[in-house]
Amino acid sequence: MMLILDYYFKNYPARRKVAEFLFENGLRVRNGRIYLKDVEVPISELARVIGVNRKIIYHTIEYIEKTYPLRLIFASLNPLPGLIDVAPIMGWEVLEIELDKGRYSSSLAQVFDLLNRHRVPIVEVFSRNLREEPSRLYVVVDGTLPVEVFVKIKEIEGFKKLIIRTPERDKEKYVCNYCEVKYCPKRILLEKLANQ
After folding, report:
1. Fewer beta carbons within 10 Å, N or C terminal of the chain?
2. CA distance 15 to 63
């Protein structure tokens, strides 16, 4: 997709910024307007969030609609709902694994094989391997990740970094230079209130 944006927006950096935002957020362009599914998004609010003036948004919409390949793509976009941000509140963990681009496919296979062998219940998987950004795999796990899996993930070929989002505090003893743990502040607050 970024190659398409490079090609069509090479002379329009502000419009490209708008197009990238629309694409990354699954916002659809149709009939001179921008939609989140079937809900129209206000142009002024969109301009404020992206950091451009409304005129740039209107020019981007017009350009997309008159350019057939862009119109086909942007008329079909949809946001992808995900559980990544709410998982720790639900008592689940999220593994964010950064992978080497050159070993992306084989690393994915190794991660899934490892999770399967240890019978780790997977709720959701999301992965991106775009040219301009680091390759990442997100796995939402029902419950908490077994310690032996946590340690073995770091041994996978192409592994670069692991971030684990968890409702638990005791994961920090497994952290190394390539790993970090992010706790769910809402979950910790709820547990603290429940214990009072």
Report:
1. C
2. 9
Sequence-separated (6 or more) residues with CB below 8 Å from residue 27: 21, 34, 35, 36, 41, 77, 79
pTM for this predicted structure: 0.69
Q: Over pLDDT 70: what percentage of the chain? A: 86
Which secondary structure element, helix H or strand E, spans residue 143, and what is its range?
A: none
Q: How do the residues of the chain divide into helix, strand and coil, expressed in percent and rounded to 5? A: 45, 20, 30
* pLDDT category of residue 79 using cuts at 50, 70 and 90: confident
- Lowest-confidence segment of 108-117, 135-144, 153-162, 170-179 by average pLDDT: 170-179
Angle at Cα 144 formed by Cα 140 and Cα 149, nearest 5°? 90
Taking residues 17-36, report their average pLDDT: 94
Q: Report strand pairing: 159-166 vs 179-183.
A: parallel
Domain with CATH 3.30.70.260 in the chain: 87-194
